[in-house]
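As described in the Methods, two query proteins were run sequentially through the folding procedure within a single session, without resetting any intermediate state between them. The first query and its resulting structure tokens are shown here.
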Amino acid sequence: MVRLAFFDMDGTLCAPRFYVNGKTLHGMSDQEWLTYCEKNGEDGYRFCKPVPMVTEYAQGLKDRGAKLYVLSTSWTEWEDAAKRKFIAQNYPGLFEEVRTVRGDAEKLPMIRETAEKEGVRLDECELVEDTYSTVLAAIVAGIRGTHVSHIYCNLG
């Protein structure tokens, strides 16, 4: 049984879509992203869309009693604020909290810390992600790792 579930945001809970100089972009370079975040602040995700299948998956976990968290890599406070606003507007009441880390390598320690604080075993935790290396690292650590494509294919 999953008691704690952690969801990545970009590419998992959020289908990226940004407007820059009159063009729709679904991604950009790191430097372009930092400039975009600084310019748009907490509105940086305003054109992004929630992912319905992932929403259903998350709601199913919550309905079965799991606590849900967003766990996303973010480089700046502007990006942190934008992610929190996107989740509040698109997933009201679904997640306990939006947590951000400054690098993907910080995700597993954050899950361990939360599990310890909640008195939950690691094998009762799930990480839903779109980065295979992070999913595999979770599995090796004893955490259920679910790649977002498994949800799309109804395998999650």
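Immediately afterward, the second query was submitted; its sequence and tokens are:
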Amino acid sequence: MMKKLLAGFGMNALGSAPSPRHELPVSRLDLARMGIPARKIPRILQELQRTADSNPLLQDRITMLRLARALDKVLL
């Protein structure tokens, strides 16, 4: 009975639920103080959020600031 129930949902349906978002320890103002151009800040925040959501060990403020500086060099 249980196999029929799970097969009815589809195997990918259960894994596609949105994951909880973690609050970033870095703000727009922090990135601006680092000298990151305003046009790059939204994209860098997106990448930092994606990183924080995928790996909770990388939620340290210092790590996020270093990652933001590296992303600034890579993004156009």
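The two ends are 54 Å apart (CA to CA). We note this only descriptively and draw no conclusion about the first query from it.
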